[in-house]
Amino acid sequence: MNIFISAIGTDSGKSVVSAIFTEALNADYWKPIQAGFPTDTETVHKLLPTPKEKLKEAYLLKFPMSPHASARKEGVQVELNSIKIPPHTKANLVIEGAGGLMVPLNDEDCVIDIVEKLNLPLVLVSNTYLGSINHSLLSIKEIQRRGLNLLGIVFNGERNEDTESIILKHAQVPCLLKVPQLDEVSTTVIKDLANQLNQTLSQHLNAVIHE
After folding, report:
1. pLDDT in tens, 121-148
2. Cβ within 8 Å of residue 34, ≥6 positions away
3. What residue spans define the domains of the chain?
4. Using CA of residue 11, residue 12, residue 13, residue 14, what is the dihedral sign?
5. Dihedral over Cα of 13, 15, 18, 24: its sign
């Protein structure tokens, strides 16, 4: 199974959540487009309790900005058709996007177009901050408009029941995991959260089977 991890914005915790899903699903991890250093591939692999093969990015850009802007500074054109699942990968695959869903890759395509092109189920990471409801619902509405498969929401950081409940009401999908506000992220933390995620996924699967 391949899963795409996106978020309502930049610095929402996609890499931490990607590490959790990679561990929980015994998957490989892939970041198709990286802009800036250190890379998220390096970050995720440092967090993984179980070592994995490092998969090469489709585009590795130097500047820490939107992919379309970073590519332009380097004289590179990001082509959606060049972004393909690594052919030698046989395991489950967790794919991390760049920024939010509507971050531009070039003048025409956005991150969400990768999800649509590769026909990937999607997990959306949401945070609690002033404006996060708006950002979450806009992301959810675009996912729904395109008919994409939203598997669930992961809430990352400080809890807010009012915010979480309204987001889930509009998403009409389960909360797969609540990642607490973490002072430090370690392999032990990732392992514990991966175990929690597996329990939630098992419960959700059983509920679907018995509907």
Report:
1. 999 999 989 899 999 999 999 999 999 9
2. 40, 41, 57, 59, 60, 61, 98
3. 2-209
4. negative
5. negative
pLDDT in tens, 85-120: 987 777 899 999 999 999 999 999 999 999 999 999
181 assigned ligand-binding residue: yes
Q: Express each pLDDT in 153-171 by its tens digit.
A: 999 999 999 999 999 999 9
Q: What single letter denotes the amino acid at residue 159?
A: R
User: Would you say 130 is a known binding-site residue?
Assistant: no
How much is the mean pLDDT over the chain? 93
Of the options 3.30.70.380, 3.40.50.300, 3.30.1120.10, 1.10.1060.10, the CATH number for the domain spanning 2-209 = 3.40.50.300
The answer to whether 123 touches 149, Cβ cutoff 8 Å, is no
> Rounded distance, CA 86 to CA 104, Å?
22
Is residue 15 annotated as involved in ligand binding? yes
d(CA 127, CA 155): 6
Task: Write the DSSP assignment of 108-154 as a string of letters.
Answer: S-BHHHHHHHHT--EEEEEE-STTHHHHHHHHHHHHHHTT--EEEEE
Active site residues: 31
